[in-house]
Protein 1
Amino acid sequence: MESNSNTSFFLQLGILTKRLLLRVWRRPLAELPNIFISAFFLFVYDGALGEVFGGGVAGTPFDFAKGNFVNFILPVSIVSASVSGGASGVYLVEDIESGVFKRYQGMPISKWAIILAPILVGAMRVLIQAGLILSIGIIIGADPAAGIFGYFAVLGIAFLWGMGFAGYSVAAGVRSGSSQGAQAATFLFFPALFLAPTFTPRYALKGWLQTASAYNPTTYVIEAMRAIMIDGWVVDLVIKGVLISGGFALLTLSLAVLSAKKATEKA
Amino acid sequence: MFAVEANNLKKTFKTKQGEVEAVKDVSFQVKQGEIFGILGPNGAGKSTTILMLTTLLRITSGFGQIQGLDVEKQDKDVRKKIGVALQETGIDNLLTGRELFYTTARLWGLSKQDANERATELLELVGISEAADRRVKTYSGGMKRRLDLGLSLVHKPEVLFLDEPTTGLDPGSRRVLWSEIKRLRDDGVTILLTTQYLEEADELADRISIIDEGLVVAEGSPDELKSMVGGDVITFTFNNEESVAKAQSLIEDSEIENNDLRITVENGAEKIPSLFSTLQKNDIEVTSVSANKPTLDDVFLQFTGYRLEGTEEKIKESEEKV
């Protein structure tokens, strides 16, 4: 039995990711709140507003859902579900707090594998949670104008957005050195979701909120998803959404890598 | 070639209050196959020394070598030679003991089959086979320490670093761990351990380095260190403080400790009668008298000016007051 300490990077990443997935599997209750809140929003918004905006306002300027309010409100719940990527930072900080991180530092393991594993698990979490909400949406009547590929496009944008939160939580968690710091991603989420065209399009918002939402990147993510669901492939809106969610992911993941690199350096 | 060499190690931390010298000047050599103990109170610099030698902390000045490899310049190679069990055990409580061994073995590059075999072997070695498939959060403190020890052995290291391996354990668990550490030494593993327990250092270590305030104050085998103190320690016990003080004024080189008076002499049995008669002539009532070989605590007292026994309690008391 020979130990070969030159295990490949991908094997190390796979082993560390599997360990984290085992941790997630053993704490199922920790996964429920976010998925529950996202599904709850979807049902409640559709229940409260679906009747009026799903058909009652046909022929008026408020017919923005074009007869299907689920298509209009589903992106909000998907964006909400994608915040689950914020768990990445919590996973990493838990390992720092428990001393597992230090143990790995004393082994010949790539530090990038140590940092990427929780981000990868966060990414899987985003895909699963956003996918589940999308499935619920389909069951209760979502029908994207862009067709079946529209589902994948919406999921893709949600994934990039979720990765943005994953990067943010890792950076915040490592810098603060506490799980609370990592969970700060959630606090950022509420203003991000509600200072946006959450319930109506931007043109129907009051002036101050219209201005605030123009500066909020979430606005463009929701608008891209809505365009796919309601109007089809509206190229400029979709590209804007992809660029903004992708840029957010790139920015925060770079921050995460820089912070984590600092954390793995010797004192 | 020494298994471990520390040469004038120094570590300075920058804090908001200024620079703190955690380790001022620490040097020692650990021979192949021996248990080397670093003995000292909390805050003496023991753990910082271990962290520097195990590549986990940058060395401010001086240098360290493991099996001839420089811990700073050849850190990756050093990590393959050493096993480390730190004070703050890095154990994933949600996994089972078997899963932890398997995962660690895979990360060390063992194949799936070899990792499974190694996990079973180590679970047996550290005596937790029966709890192998239980999550670690259900383990007792002693079991966790044994698991931690086992995890540091997965890749069959040549040198093992144990930072206060039995702190917080009950006497029974402590003895179990001691016998495992001795067995590893008998199997040829060089072990460097830190401890604040005199009994542990006496029982386990072939040689000891006493560290206080970041400096090595004495080094040698337990017997060598004790012989530095002198032959025997005579202890007279009195009823009251007044008698102790009076006795001290009559006996040269004696030290008061509570209601005891301690004198270090070459031969206790020969010296007691004359000392006893001096006290009787001066009407000082003696409650009891004993002559013992010096303990490591006597050694510690001689070199540092205070006793190690009870320092933990004193630290706790002062922390509670704060």
Protein 2
Amino acid sequence: MNRLFLLLLVICFLLTGCVKQQVLDKITIPIVCAYDEAPNDQIELTIAAPKFQAGKPDSVSTILYSKVGYTSRNILQLMNMRLNRPINPGKFSVALFEKNLAAKGLADELDVTLREAQSSRTKYMAVVDGKTKEMLQANFSSNEEKGMFLFNLLDTNVRSGLVPRQNLHDFEYSFLGKGMDPFLPLLKLQKDQVVISGLALFKDDKYVRSLNEKQMRVMKLLLQNVKHGTLEAKLDNGSYIAVVNVGSKVNYRVGKDTKSPKVTIYLILNGEILESMGVHSPKQEQQRTKDRFEKDLTTTGMDLIQLFKKEGIDPLGLGDFVRSKTRNWNEEEWKKEYQTLNVRLNVKVNLLETGIRK
Amino acid sequence: MKSMEHPRFTISPFLVFVLILTMQFGPEYIAMSNKPIQLAGTDTWISVILCGISFHIVIWMMYRILNRNETDLIHIHQQFFGKWAGAGLNFIFIVYFLLTASYQIRLFIEIIQVWLFPDLETWPLALALLLLVYYIVAGGFRVIVGICMFSLLRNLTLITLIFTADYFHFNNLSPIMDHSLNDIIRASKEFTFPYLGVETLFFCYTFIRTPKKSQKWAHLANFVMILYCLMGIFISLLLFKSEQLSNEIWAQLTKYKFVHFPFIERFEFIGAVSQILWVIPIICFCLWASSRMFKFLFNVKQLTVLPILLILVFTAVCLIPGRSLVEAVQIMLSKIGFYIIYAYIPFLFIVDIVRVKVRRTV
């Protein structure tokens, strides 16, 4: 009896082929998908399907497919009618959104990707200044697949560049979380090259305005502890000096009494002088250089915070931070308080090394 | 009345630790953090500890009952309540165990259907799993404990959660004690379902070689279970906002989405499939216990009744079509489990004390 059952159990392994198969050679695995605005509340979805040539493993080209429709899954289905290999949506790693579409709200698109079990939660999202379709049509990556190029562009800049990390999970986190608002990197096409031109700020899930590259740099310092990136400042005598960031720490404090500022941000930045054009002995200049950097960072940072308050957005998550320090925090009251919130930024720059020269 | 099993069928006391831990730490934990965090938010970890402590008390009660009578619940029922009422109570437990087994299998199949193969039918996988269960249960109690031991391999998938650390937001843990005691207690009520499983002690008691020595192992198992639950809750709190969790069905599997390896891009699929290690030991024990109760109720051999029970479970599994009914069964089971733990076991405990007192005075 037992043997019979064991036999039956073994036979079950023969059933493994009974579900739908997806052979890698017979499906299309696009990496980037781009959403554009279309009339009548429709969206135009563009995907870049990689095309491999037999016998040449290192040459990959991309073919663009785009279609207008109401739901992105239906659009993918309709695209399959033009493809010899059906699309599998599992590997989408970059999602691009047109600025105008982002201004209408991304909540619907967010729901699609978060609902699907196959989709990645750490995929990158970016807002494009201009039509995403036109951007993907441009010939910006010479020998790399376009989706892979965009993914690596965002990935390296987040890991070791100036762009603060904001992927699908982070976006949903700050969109749904109370007292915080999301932001996304802003891409732009400049002479057939894709450039990260700044940050796109959102109010809830709607795009409101953008930040330039300098503001983004400071924003990253205010958001997280960073160990990379350079800073540049103009000294009083007209010469420029560049400092590489070897470790910055940011700390938020909530003031207890009503007199002191409600939130104080302490930023300590350890730098190493990289370039001192025109300054011959930076050692004597160090104090002045430090002051200059501290002043620069403080003004840019305070300007940013003023801007956020004016727009009524909170990408730094100040509200969430105050929530974690106060009992019975209320979102409605906070929103009223936020307009007149007293925030102070306290920057300290330490210049530790000067390279291998005096 | 001595009714211990032949030493050939018994297990050493420390294996109670493995057995109770695998029975408690069932697949319910993958969805456990959603509801309580809506109720108690940052203070949910207090609820986890409160619920765990209450289970320690329940285990202590169970051992008092069992040690005094030195037999399992099937016989205790008949001693306490007479032949017919005892049989009725045993029958309730049979239904409870069969329902638990059906729920566990259906939950596992649902996870496979949602995460991996949407076009998979329910019955082939249920059939394959139940054949496996028959094979294990037919091997006897010691084989089931062996499977429990084997299922400890699942800790490997839990270790990978360390890779989610990149996304932790530590200010999600404060402020502490921001919620009322009422909220915290309501949240800890939600935790009884993941903690369920200690009631299995009632049925395997006679299979422990020196049962009185096994109490500390049962308590240790519950303690480790508290740690597992705390880990799950802390990671949920650190990774997600409660508004995000309210949209998730299986928060634990979503956590695996953050794990990437150079050789496995998507760890969540392995995480989803590995749920079988949580499910199989529990189904095996449930079917073993219910077939054993049948043996004493109707004087039949355990192996003859087992296929009938398997067919019952199989039909029940096939009759649960999708999410809404799985959830309905879950709510029902958590209610039954709640009353077994917090009403029935204390009731038995009191009846036991009263019986002893009465016997002394007489």
Protein 3
Amino acid sequence: MSVWNKQRREEEPSRPLNTNPVRPAPQAPPMEAKKEATTLSSMSNMPAGRMEPETSRGGSATIGKAVKIAGQIYSREDLYVDGDVEGTIELMDHKLTIGPNGKVHAGIKAREVVALGSIQGNVEASERIDIRKDAKLVGDIKTARIVIEDGAYFKGSIDIVKTEPKVAPSQPRQQPASAPAAVSAAAASAADAKR
Amino acid sequence: MGLLSDRLKSLLGGARSHANAGLAVNGGSAPRRIARAATKETVETRQSRGLDQFFGSFRNETGLSILDLGGACQDNVNFITSLGHKFYSEDFLRIFNETFGDDVADQSNPGRIDFFLRKSLEYPDEHFDGVLAWDALEYMEPALLVAAAERLFRILKPKGYLLAIFHSAERKQMAPCYTFRIQDLKTLQVCQYGERAASQQLFNNRSLEKLFQKFESVKFFLARDSLREVIVRK
């Protein structure tokens, strides 16, 4: 067992990082795969030694149903929560899905939220929120668009916030509006560097 | 000692009455108050003068707080938010059902009434400009009904409106369950989806005036099939 592991470790550094993003990621050694099977599935797709989540739209992290997290979650990729989360969840430009087993006791900020399980807390979804049949949401919602299926339980308020249409880049008055975005992007990258 | 703790629970958390506690201990196999989904939904579209009056009173106003006691319904959310108002949702009958089940006697227990109102209508005084109660009040026994009307009075703003619907012109054992979906200012889609045990109260103009006596005005719209729409103004 140890001989096999040793051989693999020796092989890994010679492999270039991010050679081809379309190619499926190489399989992790058996021991690592065992550890992460029920927790954060997106991590298994990452090359060894690189813990930053991918920023591509295709990337998605999963919190399995046997996982309980207390604290702040900040993600730059889509997130699927089927476990218990207590605290805050922020996915500014991404989609959050609360699975049927998911129990979230948290304030949520995301681009899009799909609820199939239970949420207790205020939700801000900049684009839309989808509350499916059998879902339970107790809290106040701020969103541009809402879909509620029959059979869903919702207790709280709904504030429809009209999002301003995005201004085309060729227009001259767009420049001052983009400045804060640049600042926030810089802040985000600084925060990443700290991590 | 047991009696004392029961008494304390009743006062603080709203303990169930003895009859109901017995049911729960024995496995809680009592039939649900609402028989849902077993039968097909029947849908009917009808004109509603009460609805017209309700939203007519808010004409040219936006940013009001409207509470819907019928639970979250896509049509109602769309309609109310499209008028520029803030939508609040309470699934009043679901909470009623979870709290009291089939136990009619429990609806007279002050501790349980208080517990129910804290779960379903816990809002600051004078918080809402309008309340859509639909038929939620129709299934309640007198003590609970009076307490609920009192609480609704408190959470409505002065000059605020409440719309309620009462079907029963005669006493029945079972009454149909409905969901009310707003189609436009004057049109309601009424979906019937099952039956529930009916209150043995008789709702006529006189009893409703008495129920809403604290309000400034009570207005009735009697429709066909004995449906009575009531608009009350605080």
Protein 4
Amino acid sequence: MSNSIQAICMPKWGLSMKEGTVAAWLVDEGDEISPGDEIMDVETEKISSAVEASESGILKQQVANEGETLPVGALLGVIGNADSSGEDINAFITEFQANYVPPADDEEDVGAATENLELEGRNIRYLKKGEGGSPLILVHGFGGDLNNWLFNHDALAGQHTVYALDLPGHGSSSKDVGEGTIVNMVEIISAFMNALELDKAHLIGHSLGGAIVLSMAITYPEKAASLTLIGSAGLGEEIDGDYLNGFIAAERRKDLKPHVEKLFSDPALVTRQLINDLLAFKRIDGVQHALEKVLASFAPNGKQSNILRDKLKDVSCPILVIWGANDRIIPASHARDLADNVKVEIIEGQGHMVQMEAATKINQLIDDATT
Amino acid sequence: MARNISYQQAIGEALAQEMERDQTVVIMGEDVAGGAGAPGEDDAWGGVLGVTKGLYGKFGDRVLDTPITESAFIGAAVGAATAGLRPVAELMFIDFMGVCFDQIFNQAAKFRYMFGGNAETPVVIRTMYGAGLRAAAQHSQCLYPVFTHIPGLKVVTPATPYDAKGLLIQAIRDNDPVIFCEHKSLYTLEGDVPEEAYTIPFGEANITREGDDVTIVTLGRMLHVAQEAADALSKDSINCEIVDLRTTSPIDTDTIIESVENTGRLVVLDESNPRCSIATDVSALVSQEAFDSLKAPIRMVTAPHVPVPFAENLEDLYIPDAEQVKQAVNMVMGK
């Protein structure tokens, strides 16, 4: 029965992760686990999160010790079933360790992971993962970047070719946002698809990115294979204006942290490095101006101006709407009473960054909706 | 996009980007262009260690070579700043600053105050400091405490290429006189630096490592010594929190105190001589503001109260090292 033995490995969260530290085991040896169960907490320089099970079975052995720092892909534990003997497990571990090669400490590898496109005079950074399958485009929200999908890139690449891009004014893309409107952003994504010769793609948008992909499906119905809108803008008027203005105004760590904590259901996920990375982004010339312009267009005076709710019924491709029940930025009530052609999934206990905090669940929902 | 470049390149890039952006930014100093009789523009030296190499070819007459008269060109830079330019003067070694104290202490630092807030002096004085390059007693000092003492000056001591670029751009855009201190032995240090221009605000310390046992407050080159010590101490399960001040004036007192309130122990690591130094300043601050949080007496790790020796073995002994930091941490931990 050795083929029922599965390795739990150190995940790779985001482009720059090389190693992680096992903060705590959350299941004991002998415990039954199911897909989506949190197995252990792992801390990296950038982020802390739980490693979730992708298989069901019994945790046979905790290979990594708490406090241990291990490279990406290293063996953390072994899952088996009731029939797996101690010998099978030991043989599996011996074989795994004999074949395991830690990733080379190669700086070039980090830069090469993203690519750049010149679109309408702007540089657009994007990440491509996976080969084959229908293309899937991930569009982040206001103030975000392609790393908002760091727990989704690899998982979704199993079935799709995944593209995640930095919108203009965001991440490492050019800071020129034009008028900063949703229409501008739609044109960029349309140009992005044309440049990469993608006729049609599954469009996944988070927050402001949701309003953008929805608008895209209305303007260019032929380009949308399906829509997944996560904690999406564009479905109602309310949005936390204090968050939006506070995010723009904060110049220092102390001022920014309370705003960023609102994004997550678990504030412990807001690590110092996460705040430092956001500050490093906000301090780049042109970012402040870009964010102000985008905000003035999509949510002036603390209210969303571009409500596309009534257009949902006219969208011909499948639409999935996902919301964290406790979203403090855009309320989950916007997922209520949507048109009949919309499938809705509310994730209990989750906040605005539900695609990060409940990644396994969200990846599953997206996979189901797009294959 | 961030790429891996050196501390020296990061400074050169900050200068080039600000000169490109703002026509009022000019550079002056000894051999910053090419020096009298230097070969062609392409081969111009760009300062004694080549930090400004390439700028003369791009910006021509905005890169001014000066005679070897610090008092004259620092005075000229201060005057030009009051008249609408944003000069970045390079004063080769911080040790030579003594000949222009009047221009800095009594003029630049005082203009805003003496003219009732109506005068601004947006001048940056870039200068090299620190031991380790076998440059002897007159070219190796850490004199940032002297400038930190003077109200009206801002004092910056970047420890990494990322900080060097962001803090220098901030310094050039700042409307007050800034003493920008570059550690000689950091010039070759490499790190990720965004291509775009960006700023880092003054008075925000950087916690480069989080820990609950001991706070190490440090700055400049010593950040890397602190990190080496903290790496070694973590093997003994001692978790250090490292606070890199980034600027000594203004100084981020909140971050220092919050960290000590959490750890209860403080080691201050400063390459300057021990009397009236950043080490004494931070120690005094914490004993006054966070005394009740302290579980052990504060320890200072500094150079000794002697000139920097020229003999290699003595200079190596002079510079605080990770072993001394480990000992100090162990002492405050009661080990």
